[in-house]
Write a structure and sequence with these properties.
Elements lengths: L5 H7 L4 E7 L7 H12 L3 E7 L5 H10 L4 E4 L13 E2 L1 H6 L4 E4 L5 E4 L2 H10 L9 E5 L3 H12 L4 E5 L3 H11 L6 E5 L5 E2 L6 E4 L14 E2 L8 E4 L8 H8 L3 E3 L1 H17 L5 H12 L2
Parallel strand pairs: 1-2, 1-3, 4-6, 7-8, 7-11, 8-9, 10-12, 11-13, 13-14
Antiparallel strand pairs: 3-5, 5-6
Helix pairs in contact: 2-9, 2-10, 5-6, 5-9, 9-10
Length: about 290
């Protein structure tokens, strides 16, 4: 295939396909650098733009993106839930977790919403030969990331998912919503003071925002002593080595950082948009460079 040439496309067509990332705030969001690197590596004629869209501007922004012919994009906080009402079709995962992080324009011009966060998380485990089927998993948090991960765990038939959140009402609502979808048993634990991660937990997922941009912050939890059977995962990707993961390592846990999830959820989106699977090392490298700035 002839290499994509931006100047040639500008003068003779076809114009590149356009993709967006919308959220507020979006400064500090490295997705554009990661996706454009992947487009280049695939020689895919696409451009990706990061746009700050406030809550009040979400509806007109989406009509504008449709009018401009955007081929898809990513949605980040605070729009992951509210964007659902403006889409034409939703995946099973998006319906279950009531959140969309990835939009694709289909051939008939309709916009399809999916959620790749949970699938990206699961991939970051399976690519290291770590499985969740029939395992007991504790999730700290009940926000967007926790909801997407819990949904994927239920669809992957984890044995038990224990939801633990500062605001217990949110974890109860999530547990209720996901109960009965698969054989996975859902329960809720209280988080008062220091939460002691149960000694029979096989996977613990730090899915709160604690630690983001803050290497000295950690959720208030204690790890079982010298537990080398426990897999500890963090969704926070900047810093990559969070204090939560460092403490988990000290307790003997196997650790999985949030960078793998970030790359994988991006790769799944790019696969939907381009039909091709970008290699992850280049995408990871761009992120590491961005985080070092
Ligand atoms: P939300 O705002 O939806 O949820 C935040 C969660 O963090 C809530 O459960 C909240 O609890 C909890 N929380 C916040 N502060 C504290 C605290 N001091 N102590 C205990 N719990 C706290 O955010 P998201 O779920 O969308 O994002 C969470 C994190 O996941 C972010 O850091 C985000 O960057 C990261 N993320 C990573 C991805 C990746 O690919 N690696 C993908 C998506 C997100 P409460 O309900 O009580 O307020």
């Amino acid at each position: 295939m002839e290499a994509y040439n931006a100047l040639h496309a500008l003068m003779k067509g076809p114009l590149p396909s356009l993709y967006f990332c919308i959220g507020d705030p979006v400064v500090g969001n490295p997705t554009e650098a990661m996706v454009e690197q992947a487009f280049r590596s695939l020689d895919f004629p696409g451009r990706y733009l990061t746009c700050r869209v406030t809550k009040e501007e979400l509806a007109p922004a989406l009509w504008g993106l449709r009018a401009l012919g955007f081929a898809g994009g990513n949605v980040t906080a605070p729009h992951k839930q509210t964007v659902l009402q403006y889409l034409d079709d939703l995946s099973e995962t998006a319906l279950l977790c009531k959140a969309v992080n990835c939009i694709t324009r289909k051939g008939d011009g309709t916009y399809y919403g999916d959620n790749t966060d949970g699938k990206g998380f699961l991939q970051s485990l399976t690519e290291r030969n770590l499985q969740v089927k029939n395992k007991k998993v504790v999730i700290l948090g009940a926000g967007g990331a926790a909801s997407a991960i819990a949904t994927s765990l239920v669809l992957a038939k984890a044995g038990e998912v224990v939801l633990v959140n500062r605001t217990e009402e949110r974890s109860r609502t999530l547990a209720k919503r996901l109960s009965g979808i698969s054989p996975t048993v859902l329960s809720v634990d209280r988080w008062v003071g220091t939460y002691a991660i149960p000694s029979d937990a096989e996977v613990v997922v730090q899915a709160t925002s604690v630690g983001l941009f803050s290497p000295s912050a950690c959720v208030d939890v204690s790890f079982p002593k010298r537990n080398n059977a426990l897999i500890a995962c963090d969704v926070v990707f900047n810093p990559v080595q969070t204090l939560f993961l460092l403490r988990a390592q000290e307790s003997g846990c196997t650790t999985v950082d949030g960078l793998g999830m970030l790359v994988n959820q991006g790769r799944l989106a790019i696969e939907m948009w381009t039909g091709k699977n970008p290699e992850k090392e280049g995408m990871k490298g761009v992120l590491e460079e961005a985080f070092s700035l």
